[in-house]
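Entry 14. Structure prediction run on the chain below.
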Amino acid sequence: MSQFFLLIFIPFLIWGPNLFAEEYPNFDNLIEISEIRSDAVPGKWSKLSNKTLPFEEFRQKNGLQYLRTDAYPYSGYYIQEDENKKIRSLRYFKEGVLDGPVVSWRENGLKFHQGFYREGKKNGLFEYWSEANIKTLVQNYKDGNLDGLSVRWYKSGLKSSEQVFHNGKIVTAIGWKPNGDRCPSTRVVDGVGVLVVYDDFGTESNREEFDEKVKNRTVERYGNGNIREEGYYKNDKKDGIWIYYRLDGTEHFRVTYRDGIRLKTEFSASPLQK
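Output returned:
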């Protein structure tokens, strides 16, 4: 009986929140993309700007998106095109909020990521791909929070980690090194434990420690192995003192946070000043 339940439950963790995704177009079909393009509001794609709400083509009022010349919140597709007229991103709005698919593409036309929003919040399956079109991340969201199974892969296609979340909080996690060996340090059970992340070359890039107080320590590293930043999250927000380091490993500055809000910044002396 328990085995039968797992067979039903695990697919639900992966696909359950996204059962109605088939009502949207096939974003790998160029004909369907062309039809969307003809009705969508076009915008300009840039590497460095126009990435977040409100986009340049809109004005924002009470959290709702309006076209600059319209009196009512916008409903419909919004796309961004690069200088070569290639679609690089797509979103769907309903009455001024994100409600539907979000998709982004690389310059070569391959998808970078795809997901869905409901009433302005991430909801359902979010997927990410590498430059070689290898899936690197799958996450499930419910009402804007991670909820269900999240899986990461290395660019080689080997699995990096499996994590299960509930209402935004991590429940369990296991991990692997790039060579396929199980990571001996990664183990989270009932929200308590350690999660280690490696880059594709086997260097530790991030380490998070979770405890029952819903406050976890995280350490991120440069490619050379030196620590880049370290500090604590509380309820998914930076909290307390965070220390930031230079590439050579020397301390650069410290920031004091409270509930994700920066309260104070203190710069350290330059190595040349010591």
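The first strand starts at residue 41 and ends at 44.
Filed with the rest of this week's runs.
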